[in-house]
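Summary for the steering committee. One of the milestones for this cycle was to obtain a three-dimensional model of the protein with ascorbic acid bound, which we needed before selecting residues for the alanine scan. The sequence and ligand used are listed below.
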Amino acid sequence: MRKLTGVTAALALLVAPVAALAQATGVKAIEARQANFKALARAFKTINDELKGARPSVDVLRRAAAELSVAAQRIPGGFPAGSGPETGAKTEALAAIWTNRAGFTEAANRNIAAARALEAAAASGDLARIRAATDAVGPTCKGCHDSFRLKK
Ligand code: ASC
């Protein structure tokens, strides 16, 4: 019982930030998901910059890949009903996210899969594998932006 309580508490800690993002409504949801995309972009930049160096640190790559993976997995929960352009808030989220939810989920899931593959590659420490997995992430960002984000 004590062990179960410990596991439950640990799980609750893990899930809490995701739940916070998923439960935010309206403008709060917009702010939360934008912060999440910033974290995702920062982690992705860290990885790309590290791979450009003469001796990439697998430790740095592992940490950033884990952050990128967590952020990617938070994407689908970041767009609750009522947090779109109709809020009047500054958002690049297109109404298509809500009118074509299945398409959006599919696009987000491709990003999640690529992020998890990169996380696994980073865990292996194999730089060639990490490079290939990193190159596979960018198109999954773009794939979602093409249909679901306002063009700048
Ligand atoms: C990034 C970033 C994105 C993607 C996208 C890939 O670094 O912030 O949104 O890569 O440009 O096509």
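Key point for the committee: The chain has one domain: 2-148.
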